[in-house]
Amino acid sequence: MTSLVKRTAIERVRHTVSLVPRGKIASYGQVADLAGLPGRARYVGYCLRNTPASERLPWHRIVRSDGKLAFPPQSDSAHTQQTLLHAEGIRVQNNRVSISEFGWQPDLGALLHEIPY
């Protein structure tokens, strides 16, 4: 499916999340912007919460705009996300990831050909 094909908002969010490469993170707001849904960061969270596990989306690479994980620090979900991020070489300290170090900056090719509009 090319980016020229019309997709639903949920499909655009899920596709954008699937493009975040191993070892990189993106914020909910960044995903919303890239999916053509500016200002809809909470909607990205909604989409991720409601994605079937069978889709195997790299949800763990999505964090808040300040680099914090969206889950309470001692929760099972935070532990799972930290474990998955560590496995990709991403350091999590105090329930936070350094966006300047690990943030995803898609290149022009991705913006033109892979990111859905």
TrEMBL record:
Signal peptide: none
Domain of life: Bacteria
Stored InterPro entries: ATL_DNA_repair (IPR052520), MethylDNA_cys_MeTrfase_DNA-bd (IPR014048), MethylDNA_cys_MeTrfase_DNAb (IPR036217), WH-like_DNA-bd_sf (IPR036388)
Residue ranges constituting the Methylated-DNA-[protein]-cysteine S-methyltransferase DNA binding domain according to the UniProt record: 11-90
Record keywords, A-Z: DNA damage
Protein name from the UniProt record: MGMT family protein
Organism ancestry: Bacteria, Pseudomonadati, Pseudomonadota, Gammaproteobacteria, Alteromonadales
